[in-house]
Design a protein that fits this description.
single chain; alpha/beta; Rossmann fold; globular
Length: 249
């Protein structure tokens, strides 16, 4: 589990969405009136809005006057009330994020609406953007284009890494064979940026580049030296600021 960083969430309000799988909390932070737009910020597997890599993204948007909405998605180890982690799936993560995305559109129908996601959240926002022509932009941090990318990375780590994910999330493991966002990325017309860690063992650099290359309006790509799967720190903050500039935020 990544270190929790609560600075941006301390003054935020919480909204509980009623869903078919129970209440799904959203963390909503306002930068001050009037916001330039709203971003839905989607965490990854076993993620949470307070994790340090999510905080880096949230702070970058808040600094530019954008509202941040970050859902607490189901089946995360980092969110004890989110349901059994072993029930996580690619499709379920995406579907839950879609509920939050629809809520954002309903709450602020006339404002600019962007998507950002880390890791599995990057997989999810590719699908959401493909289905929403009004998406202002997409920002993906350490994004996998497919389950096969994640499976290959674990195969490179050895049998223990494979057995770990098979034991912890069996349905997620099974879906690794078929989950794919390439076709969705091909349909994303919004400007897209990718920020990743050059030393990421879960999403090797070539795979982050493939995600970027699959989007027809890809605008900005950056790999942070010596950073792994959850980039954070001053260099990351600077790169995120440049990325948002490239996306028109």
């Amino acid at each position: 589990m990544e270190e929790l960083q609560t600075t941006w969430t301390d003054g935020a309000r919480r909204v509980d969405l009623e869903t078919s799988f129970g209440l799904m909390p959203l963390v909503v932070a306002e930068p001050g009136p009037p916001p330039g737009g709203t971003v839905l910020l989607v965490h990854g597997r076993n993620g949470a809005p307070g994790q340090i890599q999510i905080a880096e993204i949230a702070n970058a948007y808040l600094a530019r006057g954008w509202r941040v909405v970050a859902p607490e998605l189901p089946h995360s180890v980092a969110l004890p009330n989110s349901g059994p982690p072993e029930q996580l799936t690619f499709s379920g993560h995406t579907s839950a994020a879609a509920i939050a995305w629809a809520w954002v559109a309903q709450e602020w129908p006339k404002g600019a609406r962007g998507l950002a996601g880390h890791s599995l959240g990057g997989f999810a926002v590719a699908h959401l953007a493909a289905g929403s022509a009004q998406t202002h932009h997409v920002l993906a941090m350490s994004p996998p284009m497919s389950g096969r990318v994640l499976l290959a990375a674990r195969e490179a780590m050895g049998p223990a890494a494979i057995e770990e994910v098979r034991r912890e999330a069996p349905a997620y493991f099974a879906e690794m064979q078929t989950a794919d966002a390439e076709a969705a990325l091909n349909r994303v017309s919004a400007p897209l940026a990718v920020v990743t860690g050059a030393a990421d063992g879960l999403i090797p650099l070539k795979d982050a580049r493939a995600y970027f290359a699959a989007a027809p309006n890809a605008r900005f790509f950056a790999a942070l030296p010596d950073e792994h799967h959850c980039p954070a720190g001053e260099a990351c903050a600077r790169v995120l600021s440049v990325a948002l500039s490239a996306l028109g935020v």
